[in-house]
Amino acid sequence: MNRKPLVLPAAIGLLASVLAACGGSDSGGDGGDAIVVGTTDRFTASKEAPAPFDPAYAYDVGAWNVLRQTVQTLMAMPNGGGDPTPEAAEECGFTDSGNERYACTLRKDLKFSNGDPVTAEDVKFSIDRALQIKADTGVFALLSTVDAVETKGDREVIFHLNSADATFPFKLSTPVAGILNPKDYAKNKLRDGFDVSGSGPYSLKAETKGDDVTKVVFTKNPYYQGISDVKNDKVELRSFEDTDSMGAAIDKGDIDMMTRTMSPEQIKKLQNAKDSKIDVIEQPGLEIRYIGFDVEKPSLKEKAVRQAIAHIVNRGELTSKVYGTGADPLYSMVPATVTGHANSFFNEYGEPDVTKAKNLLTAANVTTPVKFTMNYTTDHYGSATKAEFETLQKQLNDTGLFDVDIKGEKWETYRPKQREGKFAVYGMGWFPDFPDAETFLTPFLDKDNTIASPYVNKRIRENLIPESRREADRLSASKSIEEIQSIVADDVPLLPLWQGKQYVAVRDDITGAEYALNSSATLQLWELGRGVGS
């Protein structure tokens, strides 16, 4: 059996594994051919999304995984989990008792991959630029507490915040805070296409076919200074149309590793294969799936309709039927294992109950069956998404209370339509910006939220989110975070469905694969090396 589950501490993000790849050597050597990694993430430049790799625009896990290899941030999440640690910075920290002034000192002689020096002014330029461009993806909202950026000399950067934000070091570890070379980026315009200029572990060259990226070639940056130990000279990230073609490529040896998104059937087949040269690594993850409701659409405006849906959806049936052991039912937008998690939807609705749903609709004078369309993306979250929405459709329609249609389309058009409010009900996934409860709440509930939701709750926005940010001890923030979850469970602007595990399939001559993906689904390609197959 080729399944290699990791036995890990329960603490968030502690993904340091005791598992050793079959290849042996930890270093894997610096020479040899490029290590080739497969993904079903698609990168397309379009009128709606002209700058997929611009840090001021990108806000999905695939693009972020490209940027994390190439664009350096002041802070970074260490491989073993825990709090952010200085990366491009030599040191960082709050300089006041109110968590409103944060100062960083850059490493000495830090350089971009082309040899240009990295200065404090470059940091200021990059942060100011993201806030000024204010891209419609909403990624700039991660920097919403920044009031002003001050520089002192070439190496010192001071962030003046407009309110207390104990999570700010985490936000400085995200690609939107990546340090850019002003020679290559306009201060008030996105950089179209697929070029990236940074000071991270690698430089980048994208190979394209039309408007689509087919391959991203990462070459080791000789000027890189940071916490990552780069164990290879070159990695290629190849984009595949679907999981089947990606699976065929690793079977033939055309690629060395594949990651998101593998299908449940593919995972099971690889795990049960005998005498295979491909190992499957299973890790806990913080990926979630949820349904979003446009609370201004006529069919969903009445809260009782959304509550009735929450009474009917059977998460246990959904996960076991579609994802097997690869996903667990989720009863909050905040995943289990994250500090502040509460089973708010289970507390509010309990087990699925059609009678309670019917009584709610009757009391609210809602005419049944309630008719609407659930929209989903066919190519962004994996091939199982269609089966997931077919299952949800059947659960709702079998009650006689709903008349639900489902419609799928490619992410390239799906995401812009979702942001433009063209869907009444839509399926989405979320990978955390950083391992903290805030990143599972504020991106959907705060002003300028990433899903452009019209739902507004003043207590959440004006009181609870600011309260939670004031607490440097995240356990102390749990009271505010749990209240947010309770309000969401009552109003149901969002309906959490499941929390997923993560899988990597790797040929047995590749070392470091157990470290190549952290709990936030961040690819760490610098961990990969080439050893000797069994």
Structure report:
This protein has 534 residues and is of the alpha+beta class. The protein has 14 helices and 20 strands. The strands form four sheets. Strands 1, 2, 9, 10, 11, 12, 13, 14, 15, 16, 17 and 18 form a twelve-stranded mixed sheet that branches. It has a four-stranded antiparallel sheet with strand order 5-6-8-7, covered by helices on one side. The protein has a two-stranded antiparallel sheet with strand order 3-4. Strand 15, helix 10 and strand 16 form a beta-alpha-beta unit. Helix 6 packs antiparallel against helix 9 and helix 13 packs antiparallel against helix 14. The N terminus is likely disordered.
Please work out how many helical segments DSSP would assign.
14
How many DSSP-defined strands? 20
Structural class category:
alpha+beta
The rough form would be described as: globular
What's the alpha carbon Rg, rounded to whole Å? 23 Å
Q: Strand-residue fraction?
A: 15-25%
Q: State the separation between the terminal residues, measured CA to CA.
A: 15 Å
| Sheet having the most strands | 12 strands, mixed
Average of per-residue pLDDT values: 91
Helix content: 25-40%
Q: Runs with pLDDT <50, length 5+?
A: 1-31
InterPro entries: Peptide/Ni-bd, SBP_5, SBP_5_dom
GO molecular function: peptide transmembrane transporter activity
Family: Belongs to the bacterial solute-binding protein 5 family.
Subcellular location: Cell envelope
What would the keywords be for this entry?
14 helices; single chain; disordered N terminus; peptide transmembrane transporter activity; signal; transport; Peptide-binding protein; 534 residues; SBP_5_dom
